[in-house]
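Morning F.,

Quick status update on the modeling queue. The single chain you submitted on Monday has been processed. Sequence for confirmation:
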Amino acid sequence: MNSKLSTPYIEAGKINAGMPYLEEDTGVSVSSYEFMPSWVFYTPVVLQSLLLAVRYGDIRLPLVANPTIFLSGMVGESKHDILVLAGPVAKPWISPFISLIKTRDSLDDQDTHAKQELEKANLTFPIVAKPDLGCRGVGVKLVKNEQQLKSYIDSYPLGARYLLQEKAPYEAEAGVFYVRYPNESKGKIISITLKYTPSVVGDGVCTLKELIEQSPRAGKLSHLYFPRHEDKLDWVLPEGEEFQLAFAGSHSRGSIFRDGNKYITEQLTRKMDEILADVDGYYYGRLDVKFRDIHSFMEGENFTILELNGASSEAAHIWDRNTPLKEIYKTLLSQYRMLFEIGAQQKKLGHRPASIKTLIGAWKEEKELMKHYPMTD
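Structure tokens below.
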């Protein structure tokens, strides 16, 4: 696609700086499909998967598409274990992080140890704390100081690993879905999802609660924002001041997703080929990235990778409010077809898929652990 699109973007210093401007409100603030139960969309995927399993003779093929990642990243994968697969070419493109495990040591000792490890890694506040095991932004928090770090450790489940990662220097965020077949040196980007942080703007009169209620979109998702900002709902924001309603770039947490496929370029694809060829065993999944501005991102420059997600990733541009149901189904079926194809090739190369019993066990473990994570920002 053309890398010279004259797209205006949000100026520096503002929430979502560097992102293309959101299109004008068409009266459709929330799609009819955005928050429907997942079974509505994934029932056809399951049916197709059963047919593909018959065709290839193995239902487990998606579990080996990324052979170096536990269950290919379908469930139960460690963020730490995926990120450390990066070699010397890929590593500079990944936001620096450390990982720690909540132990039975005193809170003061764990806090001291965490700060020591941060210092060794040259990481300073603010940082992003997140569970090593989990999805959809659960347990992600922006940690601004030592007291908040101590509080995060205190609220974290015993024996579980968490990451402390550099807060990206950019505000703009996207999900980039990348696919490469094992017998090919070049891959392709099949989806770019632009992730907008939800916010309201003060008028010097209304309280935060009133601003949320009056917002065409935020008002319909107040059940997500009211508990998160319970202690601030009576604030009156000065005129023109933006207030960020969510931090984690997850659709289920209220972030606004837009179809960014027109921003896919040859330059960006080549850069992803270069980086991901140096991530051992990574062939299929979504990268969560932050970037300076949309134009330099299209050139394959000025971005940092926050996470590498595996086989359970979605081409999340489908949750754009203007995406028709037919396109949602078409995209999901296409990406899972590719997942089976890649898995089949990996099996031919000698990689052995894990058992369904292992998959179910990992799903149960992750689901139970997520119940005990701190509240998401």
